[in-house]
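User: My collaborator sent over this chain with a note saying "see what the structure looks like." That's all I know about it. Can you take a look?
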Amino acid sequence: MKFGIVLTTIYEGDFINEYYEHFKCYGDLEKVNFYVVGDLSTPPECRKKVEKYTQMGLHWYYIGVEEQNTFLKPFPQLGTEIPWKSDNRRNVGFLMAYRDKCDVIIAIDDDNYPKDNWPFLTGHSTVGKEASLMTAVGYNNWFNLCSMMEVEFPTLGGGNTVYARGFPYQRRQLECSRIDPEISTGTVAINAGLWSGDPDVDAATRLVTRCIVKEKFTNDYLLAPNTLMPINTQNTALIRDAIPAYYYVKMGHPVGGMKLDRFGDIFSGFFVQKCVQAVGHRIKVGSPVVEHRRSPHNLYKDLWHELAGMVVIDDMLSLLETPLSPVSTYSEATLELSDKLEEWAVKQEGFLWDEALKSYFQNIAQNMKLWIKVCQQLN
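Assistant: Without extra context I'll predict from the sequence alone. Here is the result:
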């Protein structure tokens, strides 16, 4: 099994050596293609760190501006839809891993670090295989994956749980942690690994709670077939067949005096989930756990960027909670979803919903179709 690990960064690449040592410890170096996608401001030290291992004969690649432009040259329409100075550049890495026939493609962020007691590839090696596990059913078809973590609230002195960034506020209930002990079986298309330290919660939650987490779960779970949860790009693995459904949504659209941002992975995660359900595959949640050493953030700026996404996700519930037709391929599912996304967008009214925002989501739907065509050319 060949694993393709994809991330983008504007930092020096401090994570690189730790992944090398982790894979070396577990004898996994030869199993990994590592795609580090740079941006306009990525320091040259990052390339040096990656190419140190490339020169050792490993399939570790630093993909700079020139390499990205060369790769995208046959796909000019898509190239114009992948902006610079944006984590949307990771789309290039996903396509390269898909081109290179990686069996499992793993998204991480540059502040996710492997943990010695959680073998990274072992945790993700269930992707593409049949698994029989207890079932995360949640409540009202929503599961709170943060309920699998022990949460501390330094500023509040107590509490039960938090909810991952992108979890709809209208669906937040303590019952969303419910697990069915009955065993269910299915082919794993996505593995959502968890994180310790600084959890991936929204800025509103982080400002109020200053929460930190550590793992408390002892079992992985299969998500119930019609149950949803936010899926980010922090420690998430996908079966290769699902990549045509995994266009990373472009952010940065101005709306209501704000900017729709920091939700590209959330939209992408919900969209690919719906396609997993349509194909009849399953999603596993739990191992491996990575340490989230969060890069410096201005939480007020994060909140300003996230607020529009929080509003839109709640508005999107009717779309997210309506199943797609059963299909046999991820491309078919994505085509239906993109049509439904366009239909949904034009009908939206109320707070934030001007013609420009409707057009933005229509553009996203068109990009999803374009993404499928590029995947077909690379396959």
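A starting point for your reply to your collaborator: DSSP finds twelve helices and 14 strands in the chain.
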